[in-house]
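for the writeup, i need someone to sanity check this before i put it in the appendix. the sequnce is what the collaborator sent (i think, or maybe the updated version? ugh). structure was predicted straight from it, no edits. if anything looks off just tell me and ill rerun, i have time this weekend
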Amino acid sequence: MKSILTIFTFVFTLIFSFTSFAEWLKIGGNTTTGFYVDYERLRKHDGYFYIWSLTNYAKPFTEAKLLSSKKYYQVDCDLFRYKVLQYVYHKEPMGRDVGEPEEPHNKNWRYPEPNRFYETFIKRVCDRS
């Protein structure tokens, strides 16, 4: 059992460390945050797109003093919706540390509001198809 946990921890850390060296492209933001996506790791499987995004904070966010966070999305271009599959919180800017993963509480499909960030995000992902 201990060896399985060790292997799982190693693989999980390896997967998330690769995302810290991603080619982040800025797609939005303001004076306090920057929003980025990694089109290099955009994947399509069974009709859905899977993509990482990163939010970089100008000042530490929350009591945990987070400077960036990543989200892993599943995007459905046919129905124009998305869901978050994974969160990773970082104390370093641009996700440069290993980070703390967290499962989302809401795993339901979400529909972006018109003229908001997620509408633009979904359009850009779906335009890559």
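Helices lie at 2-19, 117-127. Residues 28 and 35 are 5 Å apart (CA to CA).
thx in advance!!
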